[in-house]
Write a structure and sequence with these properties.
By secondary structure, this protein is an alpha+beta fold. Helix content is 27%, strand content 22%. Helix 2 packs parallel to helix 7 (195-211). The structure holds zinc ion (ZN).
Length: 359
């Protein structure tokens, strides 16, 4: 009796997961997805793509607006529950793939494929750069006749426009998908200084971000509401601030990289607005960005830092300022480290630093 219940239970789970995820499996046989609640009723869609090492593919697609989640896994092979070791040995027939869950109302499968064609080389058979083997072959693993048609149309119309050599990308049914081991999930975000990430993924990400700037996720910043504003005339500010401070804080100037007092400051303490002394950032969220400006991944309190879109130099940036005096601080970008993924790039001149008292 007990056995029957177990069998019925697993049949139910299998049926449940397979209709949503095309026979997805995890390494331990459990229903696999962290985003398992995603279903057809949420009007989300999945795309499964092979484009070389899945660390790279995952890092790229998770930055796109409309992409809800990306996981790394194995598909297109013949062995059940393959391990990473088996897949990279090239004997199981699997491809390293990224499974992308996206909202087609925000980004279409076709647009996802445009990013796919642009961010890997679909003309090199079983190879991406230095990564060689059938596990790195270029592939679109479709999950519906509609996806198949879109993939073939995109391959013929888009890929051949941007590549001179023949496209070798497979367009093939998805079949069984196996979630890769935990170590391979979110690899780039968790290991940004790992050699491969710095040498191979960073340059790819830079090119991708420049080309698809209008398709990237925008930083999410809360509206400023509870701060009591300080308002002064520009003459009053000019009398109070040094000429450098006035230029940056009141005229949205930018100090030259590596010239400020605080970009390399490693002391523990609090960074406040140089004009009104509102606390803005803590040393706990400061990190070395390599840009030559103090960089933080989060304000000390969300409502202390305001933001607005800035179209200077012809590209969309998000300007950030002190919520109390409106003094310009710098910009926020979405290429920062975990947990927020944000980079608050701030002028030293806009900040006063107060060292924490020794315990
Ligand atoms: Zn201020």
């Amino acid at each position: 009796m007990l056995k029957q219940v177990v069998i019925l239970g697993s049949l139910f789970l299998f049926t449940f997961s397979s209709c949503i995820f095309n026979n997805a499996h995890s390494q331990n046989g459990d229903p696999p997805f962290p985003d398992e609640e995603i279903s057809a009723s949420n009007n989300l869609e999945t795309a499964t793509l092979g484009a070389g090492c899945f660390w790279c593919v995952e890092a790229i697609f998770q930055e796109l607006e409309g992409v809800k989640s990306v996981v790394s896994g194995y598909a297109g092979g013949h062995k059940r529950n393959p391990t990473y070791k088996e897949v990279v040995s090239g004997t199981t027939g699997h491809i390293e793939v990224a499974k992308i869950v996206f909202d087609p109302k925000v980004i279409t499968f076709e647009e996802i494929l445009e990013v796919f064609w642009t961010t890997h080389n679909p003309t090199t058979l079983n190879q991406q750069g230095y990564d060689v083997g059938t596990q790195y072959r270029s592939a679109i693993l479709f999950n519906s006749p509609k996806q198949k048609a879109t993939a073939e149309r995109s391959k013929a119309a888009y890929a051949t426009q941007i590549w001179d050599d023949p496209i070798v990308t497979e367009v093939t049914p998805l079949g069984d998908f196996y979630l890769a081991e935990d170590d391979h999930q979110d690899f780039y975000s968790l290991n940004p200084y790992y050699g491969y990430c710095v040498a191979v993924i960073n340059p790819k990400l830079d090119k991708f971000r420049a080309k698809f700037a209008d398709k990237l996720k925008k930083p999410k910043i809360e509206e400023v509401s509870s701060i009591e504003k300080i308002e002064k005339t520009e003459e009053e500010w000019a009398a109070e601030l040094t000429p450098e401070e006035f230029k940056v804080l009141r005229q949205e100037g930018t100090e030259r990289a590596f010239t400020g007092d605080l970009w390399d400051n490693k002391a523990k303490g609090t960074y406040s607005c140089a004009a009104c002394q509102l606390p803005l950032f803590s040393s706990d969220t400061k990190y070395k960005s390599g840009t030559g400006w103090p960089s933080f991944w989060e304000p000390i309190q969300a409502e202390h830092v305001g933001s607005k879109t800035d179209n200077k130099f012809g590209w969309n940036r998000t300007e950030v300022h002190c919520a109390r005096c409106d003094g310009h601080l710098g910009h926020v970008f979405n290429d920062g480290p975990r947990p927020t993924g944000l980079r608050y790039c701030i002028n030293s001149v806009s900040l006063d630093f107060e060292k924490a008292k020794e315990e």
